[in-house]
Design goal:
- The complex is a heterodimer of chains A (356) and B (428).
- With 356 residues, chain A is an alpha+beta fold.
- In chain A, 18% of the residues lie in helices and 35% in strands.
- In chain A, strands 5-4-1-2-3-7-6-14 form an eight-stranded mixed β-sheet, covered by helices on one side. In chain A, strands 8-9-10-13-12-11 form a six-stranded antiparallel beta barrel.
- Chain B is built from eight helices and 30 strands.
- In chain B, a hairpin with a 2-residue loop joins strand 17 and strand 18.
- Among the domains of chain B are: 93 residues, Thrombin, subunit H (Beta Barrel); 83 residues, PDZ domain (Pdz3 Domain), CATH 2.30.42; 98 residues, PDZ domain (Pdz3 Domain, Roll), CATH 2.30.42.
- Chain B is an alpha+beta fold and 428 residues long.
- The longest helix of chain B has 22 residues.
- Classes of the chains: A alpha+beta (356), B alpha+beta (428).
- The interface between A and B is large, with 67 and 70 residues.
Amino acid sequence: MLRLTLTLFLLATYLSSPLLGQESPTPTPSLDDFTHVWRKASSKIIPAVVQIEVDRTAEEPEKKEPSGSKQIPDMFKQLFQRSKHPNRYKSRPIAPTSGVLISADGYVITSWFNVSGTLRSLTVRLSDGRSFPGKLLGRDESKDLALVKIEATGLPFAKLAKTDHLKVGHFVAALGRSTDVKQHTMTRGVVSALDRNDGNQFQLSARTNYGNSGGAVIDIEGRLLGIVTLIHPKHNWGVNSGVGFAVYTPVLLKILPRLQKGEIIKRPRRPFLGISGEATDKPRKGIRIREVHPNTAAAKAGIKKGDLLIKLNGNRINDLQGLVTAIRRAGAGKKISITILRGDKEIPFQVVLGSR
Amino acid sequence: MHPFAFRRSSTLLITLLAASMAWGQSDDSSKATVLALQDHIVKTVNKVKPAYIMIGGGSGVIFTPDGWILTNNHVAGSKKEWPIITPDRQRFMADLIGTDPRGDIALLKIRDLKEGQNVPYCPLGDSDKLVIGQRVIAVGNPYLVGMRNAEPVVTVGIISALHRFQQGYSDCIQTDAAINPGNSGGPLIDLQGRVIGINGRVAVRFGNRVNTGVGYAIPANQIKNFLEVLRKGGVVSHGVLKGLALDARYPQGKGPVVARISKDSEADLAGFKRGDRILAIHDYPTPSQNRLAGVLGTYPAGTVVPFRIKRGDKELILRAKLTARESRSETADLSRNPNAPFLGVEFSLEHKGTGVEIEKVVPGSAAEKSGLQAGDIILGFDSTEIRNAQHLIHLIARRKVGDKVQLTVRRGNQNMTLNATLASRKSK
């Protein structure tokens, strides 16, 4: 009787389980499993996630971003049009953001965007409610990081972990501190891509936004993997699409001494040729030049619209990624040789790369 | 022991066992299961990524070892050949073989593969076996963030709904895996590593083309219905059942009722009679007109489809042939003047109601450049409400080549404004 009842019970459990819908068993952790795991993983880091509030009198003047490849198809130009309700989303809300304590004596790392502009004051609030004035030290604008210092000791802090193990598909959580300073916020997602912004950032699908910008990204072991930075697309501030970025902690570790000294690390000037074009293989593989920008290295060398760029420093160029890599390898200010196919003649050019 | 007491203690034992099972496991086993799922996702991603491709302003997937590619029609339907890039930055050329504009699918083939040369691929799965809540993976290139190094973007979510009729997709999968412009044409993959859908549309607000947690994918089984005709090449047509008029008044949830059959039509030949109640097509229940249209929208013209109907107290299977949706060219009424302003559309003759439903968009035309897609309904031309196709043709004819016009368009249940610059028929 006992055995029969037990068998019937187990049968009923199995029949009602979601496993029956799929044909080969995939692990099916329950929501409770995820809750347990994330609660445990985040518990050490949560006290180190702080709130940052600034009194801003003026924004940074908007810098014109160097244009990337101009090969964005027309349909995407629509994306960059002003939304129907421009004011609702484009201006920064006046509200606290997040940061992470990375030392017991009060170094706080955050997103540069959170502390940019002319500030009258900067306040850091901890999870226990204590509040400190913060001093802005160094920053790295192209990585979107800034270092703030508060004067205190014995503070809870997060250790910067290695990230070599990180893979696309790994579960991650983004932690921030909410406007109620005693509460943290958590969003969850996966690592979406590993190599963004020249390898300085990884991409994650956990929702990131104004409030948790500057916050911590952790894995299910509770390791600090990165700091939440700019969300994308920037022109739709306030709406996260599931495309977010975080600076790798090893990248932060490398520039930390410079930030501590108060250095303003500018975007390194990149070598610049000055053309826009598309990869083609008619009549041969190369870059068909659509535009030569005025006053650039390419213009000065006499390269013209319609030319087909086929070689750089003796190496065949098959696609735009190859061209960018070859230019980067050469470096700003360096002389390179470019082979152009014009009509049916191969013409060599000597070009001195500019920079921007 | 008294027999009753024994039974009670065994009941207690079972209850305790049940309770401990129901109340979940210890922390360690929670972590183990979560880690196991994470591991499974990472492995699936690694298996699937090599089959992903970047094409045009969007994504695609190779689904056979000999290099057949699927993407959206709105990504690749406009040109006969496309350069494609794989995540390891290999470039290939792919030829456009067939397009299904209404179903928003394009079929391409990688060119110049050597005899017996295989490429990485991700096979199609069975979208009818999907379960709401099931985890899925989307691979794409949202906002072209992957363009620089050809590294695609992976997002994970669940199946939120199935068999939805939204934005012109008549039987689509809804998912909360983050999908944005640039994901179009890319695969939606189950945890067995099979393509169960092609991502194509998102529900948006305030005109912001940003994911809101609602993404739509064309299901694999619909694509399978079309593969044979797509492989034959050209533009394929969806099917309609000609000669069947449904009763507008009928109780919801029981199935649409036939009001009228046109003599000698396909519906007539199939044996439909007035008063028949349509219960299902194949194994797909059709409790409403909307769902009936949704299921029918998954077949190409020429398919013979079994309808299960109720006549009196009998159930019958009627096999009916679907024929091509009829459309009419924009230039049908115009003079042969090649310099006349041209939008570049064909109007559906199946559409009822105001506005004009677009059956086809001419590749390279002003309509295509504006973002207009098959299935869209043009409601307004600048500030004029469109009554019918004739009306729209007259409005276009009164303009000049080069004029910029604003089209008010409905796609599914979303209204949008598209800007078109009228061209001449000859221009590209």
